[in-house]
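We now fix the convention by which a protein and its fold are recorded. The integers have meaning only within a learned vocabulary of local backbone shapes. The record below shows the convention in full.
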Amino acid sequence: MQALRRRSEFEQVFASGKFAQGRCLALRYLLRGEAPTRVGFAVGKRLDKRAVVRNRVRRQLRSAIRDVPVRAGYDIVVLARRAALGADFTVLKADVRAVFSKAALLEGEEG
């Protein structure tokens, strides 16, 4: 997986991507058709005003997604929800897997 970095890439995913949500996170994803999959994180100030807290949530989400076998060729934006602030890492990891499965983004699934 690579990082989704440019504002224009995020805007393209938000404009024409699909949506899936769970308890701790939501996904916007767009099929690009070319490998590898790129992932970006959106943890806004609405979640918490303190950058330390937002960065901790971002690091936890990045770590939880690292072990998930994601299908190739997608642009994915991970949106943190307020429930992610107090969630245990095992709960966060289970929610990540559930949301990726719901969106049919896991490698063994058809979508």
